[in-house]
Amino acid sequence: MAMRTLHGHTYAAPSAAKYLASSLTIPRLPSAFHRTTYLSKQQAVSGGGHEAKTRMLGVSMCSFFGSLQGFKVCVKNTKVQIVGLKTSASAKREVQGTGKGSLKGSEVRVRFAPSPTGNLHVGGARTALFNYLFAKSLGGKFILRIEDTDLERSSRDSEEAVICDLQWLGLEWDEGPDRKGEYGPYRQSERTHIYRQYVDKLVESGHVYRCFCTDEELEAMREEAKLKALPPRYMGKWGCASQAEIDVELEKGTPYTFRFRVPQEGSVTIQDLIRGEVSWSKDTLGDFVVLRSNGQPVYNFCVAVDDATMHISHVIRAEEHLPNTLRQALIYNALGFPMPQFGHVSLILAPDRSKLSKRHGATSVGQFREMGFLAPAMVNYLALLGWNDGTEDEIFTVDQIIQKFSIDRVTKSGAIFDQTKLQWMNGQHLRSLPTEELASMLGNQWVKAGILSEYQEAFVNEATELLKNGLELVADSEEGLLNILGYPLHLTLASNQVKEIVDDNITDVVSSIVAAYDSGELQAVIDGDHDAWQKWIKGIGKTFKRKGKRLFMPIRIALTGRMQGPEMGAILRLLREGETSGIITEKGSLVPLSQRIKVLREVDWTAVSSALENSRDIEPVTVLSH
């Protein structure tokens, strides 16, 4: 490839064209010039007071372009005409593509760049996930970069928390602060020397200048713009100051920043992977700071330099970063860097369609982890916030999402975060776990909660089978197990919902259950299998000519103290296991079958019926005889 030198820097032909294009105030040159492109010499340098320099640069550009292989340069009526530039295949990434994400394999490099100033928000996690899915679906690389230039708010504790959350989600990166890579360091605080190097290049090329404006002067500019109902823009003198004026301030030791010289003509256009074509007029932006007076680089400058030097091919980030793209594009072009493809993902909204925040409840990945959500369920749900595979399917494994993921199916409309839907989805993933894994999770939860004194496999396995279909969170299993172990008969009989059941000769069924217990028949049925239990139930139904709700409801109330719950025979077998094993703690409040039968013997069913008849809204009444 032909190499040429300009202002002391050596460039390949396509890069040189792109470098000069930025000086000429167009966003970038196309990857192949299929048509004649006209560039104004007078746009070479923005700002007044540089007429001589502009003319000289215009001449040098003509001779420089003319010396490049494949160029034909004509000057007519202050226009530079460039004809027939052809670029090689290796240079095609020097401009942003069509937004379809056509690169594959090792050419695809994406990054997630969190600021370690707090916990990982679900919005940030979704952005990280989309980058991860995009890279893995195309065989590319996923890079983690820590943007810690906010020295006052950034902390290593926050960084470690973010990393922990990403690892919990399973979003493993290929390069990062803890992984070797050829484009490190991967913390911005460790890359200051790199930023200074590129600031110096921009100063040398005339794209950046020193600004000695005081805070008072800058505030006055802002107030003036405000009075004129204009956006705040830098309108100071230092963009066109003479070298003599600059030397005076340097000798006085006046603090200064470095500002980027923004061309005031033309526009910048990108083909956003998600939003399509997006354009900005350059005259909406004033000269902006790239390096503060304390030597700290500014966010937009760091991001552009980092993405370019780390060879990031696609920048997928939240839509709130869309306005930053104009500044970053100007920096890319000024430094002759290839432009990545951008994709701006919609915000995650609360149910009221406002921006999701702490006032809506849990918003960080760490909070959801502590609440007992599964990482695969969290990934599944976050993936569906703005993406779908084109079907009605909603439950996916991570590998399935990678196989199906396409950036073309990411929507630009805001996604509603619905915790109820997340909990439902978590329940689906819980039930898809191998039985042994789910039982281990629940058993350990019960021991941790103090319901069980120890992990007993037989009891835990039986309880897991009983409860798994009604679970959405592991923590739900605590209440579920306590409901099985307890016997709130007196509360149930105080509810008006049981009136019809009580008045339907419930005493016939209860007397039959007590008699079966006294004879040992009930215990034998419990020791048997499911068929034995069903046969016994049908026997009661045949005796009293009952079936359906009239048969099952009074039996359930009598034996469990509740109107609903898991299969009754399995509950009674679990109670027996809990009683004989001795692992149920006082907190577990186990009421064994013998105690339940004792309570049934003492119920005054006439009093229950009378109380239900006389009042529907009273405190629970005493229903036991004395």
From TrEMBL:
**Coiled-coil residues:** none
Pfam entry (one): tRNA-synt_1c
Plastid is among the record's keywords = no
**What region holds the Glutamyl/glutaminyl-tRNA synthetase class Ib catalytic domain?**
107-424
Q: Residues in domain Aminoacyl-tRNA synthetase class I anticodon-binding?
A: 446-576
| Cited PROSITE patterns | AA_TRNA_LIGASE_I
Q: Which domain of life is it from?
A: Eukaryota
Which of UniProt's keywords are assigned here? Aminoacyl-tRNA synthetase, ATP-binding, Ligase, Nucleotide-binding, Protein biosynthesis
User: Is Ligase one of the keywords UniProt gives this record?
Assistant: yes
Give the record's family classification: Belongs to the class-I aminoacyl-tRNA synthetase family. Glutamate--tRNA ligase type 1 subfamily.
Question: Which protein is depicted?
Answer: glutamate--tRNA ligase
